[in-house]
Amino acid sequence: MQLIRANIAHFPTATKQPEQDISIILDGGLVIDNGTIVAVAPFNEVNASFPQASIVDHSGKWLVPGFIDSHLHYPQTQSIASYGEQLLSWLENYTFPTERLFSETAHASDIAQVFLRQLLKNGTTTGFVFSSVHKTCCDALFTAANEINMAIVAGKVCMDRNCPEDLQDCADSAQRDSADLIEKWHNKGRNRYAITPRFAPTSTEAQMASLGELACQYPDVFIQTHLSENLDEIAWVKSLYPNAKSYLDVYDTYNMVRPRAVFGHGIHLHEEEWQRLHDTGATLAFCPTSNLFLGSGLFDREMAKQQDVHVALATDVGAGTSFSMLKTYGDAYKVSQLRHAPINPYDGFYLMTQGAAVAHKWENEIGNLNPQSAADFVILDPHFDELTSLRIKPDAPFDDVFFALSILGDDRAVSETWVNGHCCYNKKELTHAMV
Ligand code: GUN
Ligand code: ZN
């Protein structure tokens, strides 16, 4: 049993008013045992109640729930920061050639390790991850995550047209391979599976139908894909699916719009698509660094609020330009400034912790520091360098600390990342749970 001493911030419940419902405990204590949170309260109280716990002292730092990155691509780790294109030519010129390398299992295993190390050093303890089309690529990630009991959601990308032939599966193999992976990994330890059609243009109607059938067979698995990211993409979807009422309707026709369906982007949506996302309880993943990098557009957080649609923040690496969820909120703030409706730090923090967990129906385990939740948390250091030491006063309130670290910080602000009760990343010692 361990007692971690620090200032503590989290959202114990679902909320539409994060600034009112945040729980802040100055000089707090988090008691953990066997990978699970036992208690969270002022340090003096828990110290008296759990005298047997060994104390880990992070006084002056902030302890927050591990971050949830709700959409990213692990085979794109090595093609991050590739110059000069918008979505469709970027996919052709950088993404597909890189994903091709993942037919080699050894390569997939190597990059899975790099990828998880990047998540951990940035304080991310859960990711919603696209693998490549190769079943073994998805296996490699689950295997690596399983070794450290990390809660990862992943899926084999399915695509059977409009991409290089050697990267195509087919309707039957996509269903069969996805079903095999569900049976092997979904709910095994902390792993969860996501049925993953890449996006409407790269799946035939036959493949959509076979994946929709699978989704009905497994009502609790996640679904992840892309939606309305780029105007050329949307026009292409219209020509490929002339009978669909909208882009979202392509997925809806095949029963893939539902709770635990996570749609990357959703920048250019029509009224009826917003309505349908609300009615079904699906989630939009807001990926600001990616949207700016590919010139895709400005996500409308205010509309999502008005329409009461779940939103979760995400990096979308490798179109996203950083693994840091702090930086991701920093860019979400800048996007929202251009829309004249700034996303405040409470909302930003919510969208990468409890808000994401609630959207994904997973708040019994992740996203918060409630007793019984998994001990997945991050220690943030407000004074990681000269500039943040100058800017962030020792008694600065959490919203100011979080905002300044999101604008000025990145992985350098993360002192430690704990997964399932174990410290898996320690900046000072530069140690990782993995090699
Ligand atoms: N749309 C289809 N595939 C992708 C991808 O890999 N990245 C992004 N950002 N959008 C996509
Ligand atoms: Zn993506």
From TrEMBL:
GO cellular component: cytosol
Cofactor comment text: Binds 1 zinc ion per subunit.
Molecular functions per Gene Ontology: guanine deaminase activity; zinc ion binding
Cofactor(s) required, per the database record: Zn(2+)
Origin species: Alteromonas australica
Start and end residues of each Amidohydrolase-related domain: 63-421
Catalytic activity, reaction form: guanine + H2O + H(+) = xanthine + NH4(+)
Pathway linked to the protein: Purine metabolism; guanine degradation; xanthine from guanine: step 1/1
Protein family per UniProt: Belongs to the metallo-dependent hydrolases superfamily. ATZ/TRZ family.
Role description: Catalyzes the hydrolytic deamination of guanine, producing xanthine and ammonia.
Name this polypeptide is given: Guanine deaminase
